[in-house]
Amino acid sequence: MNVEQARAALSKVDDQGTKDVLASGLVQNLSVSGEEVRIELLYDVAHGMNDRIRIESGIRTALKMAGWEKKVTLLPVVKTAPVAAPSEPVGGGGLVGLGRQAKPPQGGHQAHQHTHGPQGPPGPPSMAARRVAQAPSAKKEIPGVKHVVAVASGKGGVGKSTIASNLACALAKSGKKTGLLDNDVFGPSLPILFAVHEQPKVTEDRKLLPIEKYGVKLMSLGFVMDEGAPAIWRGPIVMQVTDQLMFDTSWGELDYLILDLPPGTGDVQLTLAQKAPLTGAVIVSTPQDIALADAERGLRMFNRVEVPVLGIVENMSQFVCPHCGKASDIFSHGGARLKAKELGVDFLGEFPLDPDTRAAGDIGKPVVVAQPDSPMAKEFMKLAQAVIERSERLRGTDLGSRIKILN
Known about the structure:
Elements: H1 3-10, E1 27-32, E2 36-43, H2 49-65, E3 71-78, H3 127-134, E4 145-152, H4 160-173, E5 178-182, H5 190-193, E6 211-213, E7 216-220, H6 235-247, E8 254-260, H7 267-275, E9 280-285, H8 289-304, E10 309-320, E11 327-328, H9 335-343, E12 347-353, H10 355-362, H11 367-370, H12 375-394, H13 399-406
Parallel strand pairs: 2-3, 4-8, 4-9, 5-7, 5-8, 9-10, 10-12
Antiparallel strand pairs: 1-2, 6-7, 10-11
Helix pairs in contact: 4-12, 6-7
């Protein structure tokens, strides 16, 4: 890496929402040697600690994504007066979503501001309506990928990543070329679930090369960030990160790309649902009412953007005592099956609380791989077959027909 390449990488790192770290004057001295990149960062009193953590994490990530795997030394200096920034136009998005954000409209007015009519000011639009209006609608194909299946949940803590990782391994064991993308940039789980502690390589045309393990091609922001480093980013940057991880990864030929979505129905989930060429979605829930209510919200989000829901999975369905064999309904039981029937979608199976599955995930070897003959592994193989069957049924059909086919 030379200085110009380092500057190109840094030009994609946002300072405080209006300029990159070069244009803002934050980066004052940059030197590149064979073994080290050294950067002096000239902060002013307007930069809080959260800004500094986010910026420095972004700089390290951008340099890694540009192919630099050696030492990065950041030398912070704090001025008591604001930093004088060069007058440059603000650019667009950038490497791994660390791009600059657009300036707000003149006068500080927001895009959703309303004109007051004779009946008085109307109420603000709902959050869901604003998200639908703002989210991009154009689908982008992923070269070489036949089916893209999202694994989603309305809330966190339901074991969605465990389901996604074992589903991916089960698809691979079924003979399908499979990839798994961790879309949760705030809590990436693939480094733990697959015990991956290496960084992906970058091709000459600046594409990320996924890391392959257990026959599955893997990509996660957790592979390129320092272990334990927080992703303290604003929403637009997060969406740019997820966009690049999906579309700027060299996946090769895949039958299935599984997307492990972050929980909820926010901007990231909606943008992915509208932008990614999704074959369909699998909804994961636990059996209790509070989880099912959120799962229903997730399902209705996919319906709104015309993404067919392949079905609902009930996780943590029961706990079977390994000593006496008695089943206990810790989080209730059967709620997801009833919800699937109520909403007119398929029920794809139930997975009990299983200590071996938890332990397998903790050591980075999903239970489908660690214990292929176990009852849990066999259930995941059934889930994989259900996903294959429904995805093939939808293949080649237009978006308007897909939901009708499944129903």
